[in-house]
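Handout, section B. The chain below has 246 residues.
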Amino acid sequence: MSRDLEGRIGVVTGAGRGIGRQIARSLAAEGMSLLLLARTGGQVRELAEELTSSYGGKMLPAAVDVSDPAAVERVVLHAEQHLGTVDLLVNNAAIIESQELPFWDGDVEEMWRVVETNLRGPMLMTRALLPPMVQRGHGHVVNITSRARAATRTGTYTGYAVSKRALSVLTQSLAGPLAGTGVVVIDVLPGLVRTDLTESMPVWTTRENPQWDDAAATARVVTDIARGRYDDRSGEVLEAPAISGG
C-alpha cells in the first residue's frame, strides 16, 4: 500500500502526549520519519518505539526545552544528521499557567515562562528550520494555535492567551515574505480537545458536558497540509473539526 509521505522528514514538538502524539501517529502512518520532541524523554521514547513497530520509518526522540536556543540548535543539527533535511515542522508544544487567576493576581514570571514556551519556542524552531526549506523551495510549517476560549471566558490564563494570539500573528507575518518560495505556513485550530492541559483548567472540568473535539481531526488536517492539500492557504487558519468533520 502506498503511503503519501514516504521518504519525508517531519518534526513535531510536544509530541509526548495529547494532540502532538496523535499528529505524530498520523504522519508516521503515511510513511514520514519524525523527530519527536518533548520536555521529558520518556514519553517520546515510548512513542518512537510504538511508531517504528507499527509503521517502520526512522523515529528520533529527544528531550528538549524548545525555548532554549542552544538546545534547539543542537537537536535540529542532530535531526539533519540522522534523518535528513526536514520537510515539515509542527509547532505544537504548549504550556499554561498553573492557576486560573486574573492578570493582576497572577505570577508574571510564570506568565512569561508560558510565553517563552508557546511563542519563543515556535520562533526558535521555525528560525532554525525555515532557511533550508526556503533554499530547497519546499516545506511546511504548521502552528497549532488556540482561540484561548478559557481566557476569554474567565479573564484568566493571560500568558497562554497572549502567546497563542501572538503565534497567529507570527504565521501571518511569515506568509507574505514566503509567497513564491514554495514554503507554506498555516495555523491549525484544534478546537476544544481533552488533553492534560485542558483537564488542568477548572473552567472545563467543572463545566457540565463540555463538547470535546477529537485530536484525530487535528492530526488529519496536519497530515493533509504535509501532503500539500492546503498549499493555496498559506497564512490562513484551518479549523480542524470543521474541515475534517471530527
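Note. The chain has a mean pLDDT of 91. Compare this with the example in section A.
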